[in-house]
Design a protein that fits this description.
This protein has 2 domains: 91 residues; 231 residues, Bira Bifunctional Protein, Domain 2 (BirA Bifunctional Protein, domain 2, 2-Layer Sandwich), CATH 3.30.930. 43% of the residues lie in helices and 18% in strands. It contains 13 helices and 9 strands. The strands form 2 sheets. It has a 7-stranded mixed β-sheet with strand order 1-4-5-9-8-7-6, with helices on both faces. A two-stranded antiparallel ribbon has the order 2-3. Strand 6 and strand 7 form a beta hairpin. The chain starts with a helix and ends with a helix. The chain binds 3,4-dihydroxyphenylalanine. The site of 3,4-dihydroxyphenylalanine has 11 residues, from strand 8 and strand 9.
Length: 344
């Protein structure tokens, strides 16, 4: 066998091994790989010179070339592992792990502030002996209006800016619809509060939203009077705001109560002196109420000669805004974590 071709093969393997060992990264390694064992590499070039050998020498040299190729390939694999290990060493050396650092506490979720206010309000009434009733948000005209003594085509229906469904049902405009459901399903005496979402096609601003929440109250018993109503509302206000806060009743109108009233509390911002928030009056309206109209009792199968009752409805957002001195109702729906986290 030609000594010179074999020597060249041995030299090629030695060159390849030292070039691969010198490669500092994958790029350099791939370049060396192409130069030695690639299609246009020196090993292929050496193979092509097989013609220089005698027919007996050729298979022997062919085997030698294969052994050489395996040697180079093994060197490539070995050096690829070396380069990966070196890279890992470098990245570990650059990272300082301080095992004494305290862990980072995950952000804790919590109930939405409106939910907490609603619960607090409901709990005051639970303490006063009330049950909680719930009703559907998609409601019939009968429960939302008809049984509550809103005559057909009466302008009071327009006041509510009702969102209607195609099938004739509607999104309830107030929780008063659950008064009807409660009286149809239960015999007096009745003492319930009803928290829930209501809908009106209102334009959004600092104090209005097309979606908000109310807490409705209904008491039906024998000889219930306006004095019970006023005493109950005063008890609620004092307990909820955790101090004695004067209230006043102003005559008003609702189709489902007679007489009807709107209730103000002394302004929580100025203590009654008069400020921007209360329009200098010293009072802030928080709810509507009244004595259940006999026509409502009749629609709900309650005998108005035997029973009397009072009802009230207040906006939960409104109460929350007064309690926490929040100036814009939109904070409740934006769900900015910075706002929400004040309450948890
Ligand atoms: N449903 C009325 C509203 O949404 C509020 C209200 C007024 C409820 C008087 C009552 C009530 O129960 O007696 O504007």
């Amino acid at each position: 066998m030609s000594a010179s071709l074999n020597e060249e093969l041995a030299a090629l393997v030695a060159d390849a091994e030292s070039a691969l060992a010198a490669a500092a990264d994958d790029n350099a390694l791939n370049t060396a790989k192409a130069a030695f064992v690639g299609k246009g590499g020196s090993l292929t070039a050496l193979m092509k010179r097989m013609r220089e050998l005698s027919p007996e020498e050729r298979p022997v040299f062919g085997k030698a070339v294969n052994v050489a190729r395996e040697q180079v390939n093994a060197a490539i694999d070995g050096n690829r592992r070396r380069i990966a290990a070196e890279a890992q060493q470098r990245s570990l050396a650059g990272t300082q792990i301080d095992a004494t650092l305290p862990g980072r506490a995950p952000d804790r979720g919590g109930p939405h502030p409106l939910r907490m206010v609603e619960q607090d309000m409901v709990n005051v009434f639970r303490d006063l002996g009330y049950d909680v009733a719930l009703g559907p948000e998609v409601e019939s005209d009968f429960h939302n209006f008809g049984a509550l003594n809103f005559p057909d085509d009466h302008p009071a229906r327009d006041m509510h800016d009702t969102l209607k469904l195609e099938d004739g049902r509607l999104l309830r405009t107030h929780t008063s619809s659950v008064q009807v459901r409660t009286m149809l399903a239960n015999k007096p005496p009745i003492r319930v509060v009803v928290p829930g979402a209501v809908y009106r096609s209102d334009t959004v601003d600092a104090t209005h939203s097309p979606y908000f929440h109310q807490l409705e109250g209904l008491v039906v018993d024998r000889n219930i009077s306006m004095a019970h109503l006023k005493g109950t509302l005063q008890a609620f206000v004092d307990r909820y705001f955790q101090r004695s806060l004067p209230i006043r009743l102003r005559p008003s109108y609702f189709p489902f109560t007679e007489p009807s009233a709107e209730v103000d509390i002394q302004c929580v911002f100025c203590g009654g002196d008069g400020c921007r928030v209360c329009g200098k009056s010293g009072w802030i309206e928080i709810l509507g109420c009244g004595m259940v109209d006999p026509a409502v009792f009749e629609s709900c199968g309650v005998d108005p000669n035997e029973w009397s009752g009072f009802a009230f409805g207040m906006g939960i957002e409104r109460v929350a805004m007064l309690r926490y001195q929040i100036e814009d109702i939109r904070h409740f729906y934006d769900n900015d974590v910075r706002f929400l986290s004040h309450f948890s």
